[in-house]
Specification:
alpha/beta; two-stranded antiparallel sheet; 38% helix; binds glutamine
Length: 273
């Protein structure tokens, strides 16, 4: 009977942690390297580390931050305080971009508001010929991004997407992907405790949640070659607003793709040929 593991589960459940058992297994493995369900118990040192991490998780620090890394598609990213955790929902966004680029030989790709770099890195892994640049403004997210791109050939640039388009050559890009901040003021006021520990800068997008989409729709068409694609992650209620913004700004072939949960999650469009 592994009583340390049992009490960790109980502690997390009492704190209202959504997947308490899963999180307890992950924390136990992280500290001991062993599966708690096949283990007699931690050493005294392991038990004290486990108690500290258990309390932090009970205080609703994201599991991802406690573990320091998290999987996305078929690879692992460094994460921690100051950067948005990669989410499974974003995998469909990355896959949509890979599909749009599958016939391109050496596509030039920008991941704007890159955070950990998950989207740009996912593209680079699946399309080794792609030249990918990840753009991130946050000084807090920057160390994670540079650690994640190290050795991959993906470039990282610290810049602000509200002005970065001025530095891009006209027609030079084949695809622009972005998971920008997209929460409304109302949503920001009702975050899950874990999301509230993530950087507001990666989440909040003005009263209506659309300020980043407005900038992307208005200013980034010219950076793409004719027929070049824009791939955006959106919130589950933003399909109409984002497709309307793109249509108003002269984008073509506007489509929406659902995530694994069946919610609208990705909008794609092209610069007209
Ligand atoms: N998907 C995130 C959430 O639901 C939001 C990410 C974003 O704003 N880009 O909290």
């Amino acid at each position: 009977m592994n009583t340390a593991y049992q009490s960790l589960c109980a502690r997390l459940m009492m704190a209202g942690v959504p997947d308490a058992r899963f999180d307890a297994v992950q924390l136990y493995k992280f500290v001991t390297g062993r599966d708690p369900r096949l283990d007699n118990g931690p050493t005294p040192d392991e038990a004290s580390s486990l108690r500290v991490l258990g309390e932090r998780r009970a205080a609703r620090e994201p599991l991802q931050y406690l573990l320091g890394e998290w999987d996305f598609m078929d690879f692992t990213l460094k994460v921690g305080r100051g950067v948005l955790c990669p989410r499974a929902d974003s995998e469909v966004v990355c896959e949509a971009a890979i599909e749009l680029l599958k016939d391109a030989e050496a596509p030039v790709v920008y991941d704007l508001c890159a955070g950990t770099g998950c989207l740009g890195l996912g593209i680079a892994r699946h399309l080794p010929g792609a030249a990918v640049t990840c753009v991130e403004k946050s000084a807090d997210a920057w160390p994670y991004l540079t650690a994640n791109v190290a050795g991959t050939g993906v470039q990282a640039v610290q810049d602000d997407i509200f002005t970065y388009y001025n530095r891009l050559p006209s027609g030079g890009a084949d695809l622009i992907i972005s998971n920008p901040p997209y929460l409304t003021a109302e949503e920001m006021a009702h975050l899950m405790p874990e999301t509230a520990r993530e950087p507001a800068m990666a989440l909040e997008a003005g009263e209506d949640g659309l300020v980043f989409y407005r900038a992307l729709a208005q200013h980034y068409k010219n950076a793409l070659c004719p027929g070049g694609a824009l791939v955006l992650e959106i919130g589950w209620q933003q399909r109409e607003a984002v497709t309307a913004l793109l249509a108003e700004n002269g984008w073509a072939e506007i489509r929406c793709i659902q995530d694994f949960g069946g919610n609208d999650r990705c909008v794609t469009a092209r610069r007209p040929k």
